[in-house]
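Aim 2 progress update. The chain analyzed this quarter is reproduced below.
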Amino acid sequence: MVKTWKVNWKGHEILTKNRWFRGEQLYIDGVRCDRRQGLGFTSELRGQIKDAEGSVHLVTAKFRQGSFGTRILCHIFVDDQWVGGDLI
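Predicted structure tokens:
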């Protein structure tokens, strides 16, 4: 089973995927930036976006188990500001 979260931030597509028993992946503009394999209660993936002015922005996707361990939640941040995924 695959669950995905997608957000557009200033013209850049940030996509995360969770696959039960196979881990999580972070894509920025279609390029895989980070991945984690295996099972865990929480995990964090990171990547970077370079804007038109040359500034670099840190993208962080935080995964955790939801209530009773039956679902996975994902929170997506850019420069420590929540931009998408499940509500905090």
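The chain has a mean pLDDT of 90. Strands lie at 2-9, 12-19, 23-28, 31-36, 42-50, 56-65, 72-78, 81-85. These observations will guide the mutagenesis experiments scheduled for the next reporting period.
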